[in-house]
Every structure is written in structure tokens, then in C-alpha cells.
Write a structure and sequence with these properties.
Layout lengths: L4 E7 L4 H15 L3 E7 L14 E5 L14 H29 L4 E7 L15 E5 L30 H10 L1 H15 L3 E4 L2 H11 L4 E2 L19 E5 L8 H9 L8 E6 L4 H13 L4 E5 L3 H10 L2 E4 L8 H8 L4 E4 L4 H4 L6 E4 L4 H12 L2 H18 L2 H21 L1
Parallel strand pairs: 1-2, 1-4, 2-3, 4-5, 5-6, 6-7, 8-9, 8-11, 9-10, 11-12, 12-13
Helix pairs in contact: 1-13, 2-4, 6-11
Amino acid sequence: MGKLRIAVWHNLPSGGAKRLLWHYIDGLSKRGHYVEAWCPATADQKYMPLGGLCTEHILPFTLPEEKKTLPLLGWIADRATMQARIAALREHGRECARQITAGGFDVLLANSCRFLTMPAIARYVKIPKAIVLGEPNRRLYEAMPELMWAAPAPRGDGELMAGFFPLLRSTLKLKHLRLQMREEIENAKHFDRILVNSFFSRESVLRAYGLESEVCYLGVDTGYFQPTEGVKGKYVIGLGSVHFHKGVDRAIRAVGMMPAAGRPKLIWVGNDSSEQTTREYRELAQSLGVELEIKVLVPDAELIALLGRAAAMLYTSRLEPFGMAPLEANACGTPVVAVAEGGVRETLAPGENGLLAADARPETIAATLRELLENPARLAELRGRCRAAVVARWDMSGAVTRLETSLTALTMEKSRA
């Protein structure tokens, strides 16, 4: 396998995608491949910084400010702002492509953009180009919790004109998002290979973009995520941003269905939150008699300790494309109870590294959690198995090999064309 000159592009916030990119660059570099990275100044530079692994070019970039106008004409301002954002991101992609071309690279490995999921750089780079895509921009395609494209309910007596003006306002308000959808779809078409993290994600890409993609399973740094010494705590842990799609409400309701005498505390750790959602979840927990503790942006050492001492992880994300958090918990010796939907069905083997709840009803999740927590022998058995299962199938070295194989095949394929 020949050594590649790999150009990397990203505009990632802190979180799992940035951690994965760090490990990819580290692993590829150690295998003799040459890597340089490009990103706009809006990418997170504090979490898992890339500068210690490779040369990273941080280009100045300022997102166009939203235009202020009268509420009635807000849709015009939204459209103008989106057009300016798209133009700025294209110009950034054009400049990165110019520098990459001058560097004589073999392949581009792009990552998602925090502003437009599919970046524009593929339009301008002429070398083989792949993107690691966690998922399409879900809010444009899924109900979260409502589908934004649905017409508003008519007012008054239901006559045609009663709903005409709300429908008109709604249609005009969404015009800028239609521009975003078009831009993301067109950007996606310029990549030679879209690398997704699960078969579930491959289907999501096909539904959203009408494009084929390739499953390139992720991995966990099992040397970093290790079991914690000491007594297990009397709590279950949830992990993910404190927002609707991570299913915090599902977890609270499930714990609330358990008998009060044996009800565990729920600790939720996230890298992002809002005051409103945090307040709402705390109020929900209080109403159901659930002891809830929300922690945001905790250091990795604290996170690993929390994962390692938890009785179990409760994984309730809605349609999560892969589910890295359950594997991180497993690596720390903690089994997982998850809802059987999304990519977690591909990573969680019932009876080996956790249990799957058949549906997302609180009583179903609670019954599955009780099945684990109220059976000490089975809980101990899964604690003994789950780390070995992750080391065998989901170690980071295997993920780097899968990516390396895909990038090499892509460059060979293009060289023969």
C-alpha cells in the first residue's frame, strides 16, 4: 500500500467528530502517510487540537451577520443572509482548494461543516475527494420534534382563506432553508466518495441527497477509555448534547417509571445545552420524582470516571446515526441499555455489551433497564464482556485501517480512470 499525501478539511465544533478526526490524522501519520489540514477560524481549536499532529492552516473567516429588518420583511433578510453565507463558504473553499492544489496532494479527506453540513470545497478540488459524514443535516429532513416543511394549521373555522396568510408567511420564511438544502445537495454531488458510519446512515444519505455512500465504521480509543477503579455508583449515565434529538426526555421518563425504592439517579453529560431545555428537563425530572444532574463540558478525565463508575449507560438518542457514546461506555466496562433504533442496532449486541429496548415507550425502556440492574449476576457478566467486545470489533486501529483502505482504493480508482 503506497503512502499518500492527504489534505484534510474540517469546520468542526468540539465533540465526537473532532475526536475521531484527531485519531484519524494520528493513525494515518503513524502509518507513514503525510497529512496537512485546513479549516476556517470558526472551527474549534481548543478541543483535540490538530496542530500537534500535522501542519494546520487556519484561514480567517467571519460568518456574515444577520441583516436587521422589519419582522414582516424578515424572510428577505434571511434569504440575503443565507446567500451571503453560501458565498463566503464557497470563497473559503476556493482558497483552500488553491492551496491544496499547490501542495501536490493525492486525496482530499473532508469533514462536515458546522454551518452547512456538506462543505463547498469539493467543487474546487480536482484531486480524488472523500468526505467523512456523520449524518445529513437532520433538521432539514426530519421532525425535530416537528417537520418544518409542514403547512401551519389553519385558523378560524377552517375555511381556505383562514389558513392562507399563515401558509404564505411560513412559505416565505423557509425560502432561505430551501437555498441551504440545494447548496448542500449540490456540494454532496461533487464528492467522489461519501463515507458514512453505519448502514442506517447510508440509507439516510440516500433519502436526503439521493446519492450512494460507503459504510466506513468508526472506532473507539480503547487505550484512553478505560475502566475506573473503585465501587460502582448508584446512578445511570446519559451522554449527548442537552437537546431534543439526544432523547434526554426519554431517559427521564424511563427512570421515572422505575419503582421509587430502587430508582437510580440520572447523570446527563453533554457538550452543549441551552438554558431553556435544561430548565425544561429539570422540571420534568422533578415532576416525575427523578434525581437528575446535568453536567456540561466536563474534562475528559471526569467523563471517563463517570462512565466507568456508572451502573449502566441509558442511551436514548433519537435516530442516532452510529452511537459512539455506548462504545465509549463499554470500553470503560459499563454495559448499555439503548433504544433499538438508528445505528446503535449495528454496534450493540444484546447479551454481550448491553440490552436493546424494543421501542421508546418509557415503560419498555424502564423494564429493560430493570432487567439489567435488578439482576446482579447478569450485570456482572456484561461488565466483564463489554470491554472485550469493543476491543475486538471497535478499536480505533481498525477504524484507521478501514479509512486508509478506502482512501487508497479511491486514489487508485481515479488514477485508472
